[in-house]
Amino acid sequence: MAKLSLARGYIDRDELTRMDSRALASARASSQARFILVSGSEVAVDPQDPQSLLKLSRDDAAMWGTSSSAYLGRDAQWRYFACDVTGQIPEGDVQPPRVPLMRPVRFWAHEWNDVDTALAVSGVAVLQWRRDARFCPQCGEPVEVRFSGWEEECANHHILYPRMDPAVIMAIHDQNDRLLLGRNAAWGPGRYSVLAGFVEAGETLESAVRREVFEETRIPVARVEYFGSQPWPFPRSLMLAFNGWTEAGESDLAVDGKEMAHAHFFSRDEFTEELRAGTISMPTPTSVAASLVQDWLGTTFAEVMAR
Hints:
Helix content is about 25%, strand content about 30%. It is an alpha+beta fold.
């Protein structure tokens, strides 16, 4: 299984502490507590070392509202919490340390260590859900946070859990091991990626792969193999990656011109040449799409550009 950028790292989520209000209060007040700051899909990084997250002690984080912070879990040394500072970061040219230095997870997480990546993704995911899920979908009543934000409950005792939407993303290979890439109609010129789409109700992952590819390009897919998964909390997806193979070729491609503007089977030489020439561009390094393409390519985009 592939090691994807946002699937790195392990934090003990420590459910026993999360579900015990007294143990949770003790952990939050302890000298082992460390707090990360999350604003939307951005997290605060250490201004002296931007490749590391800013992890504040309870006293240093107090101004950001530690009492409502979400408990992310623990390792051998620290108990980690995430504070939602969305809307609290003032605009302008004020520089750290008075204002945190924020970085978008989707553009920077591949440069962080495994633990920091796990903390950032979990913090963004759970706090995004807390901001969005304010009313019960069954009865419409307001909800209250339970268990440090990992559950919510309304007055009618309906329980809510963080929502994750499964999406498949796939690298489709033809008989010559060329890779199918498409350009979404909403994207600018030259931007290409592998195909992707959300899993529909009552559908298996393999069926979703085949359906999405056929809907977007009219290419039938035969064999499908699992590649890996990673969270994509922008706002709440879980990306499930696959390789797939088809006996169809370039002449069989047909796009609708609305959702998909263009699709093409690239050879490695053609892809490398166009990437270096700047006529095509690729997804961000944190994405599953980049991992799938680089796995097929046998090298990284950075190494291609450095040659």
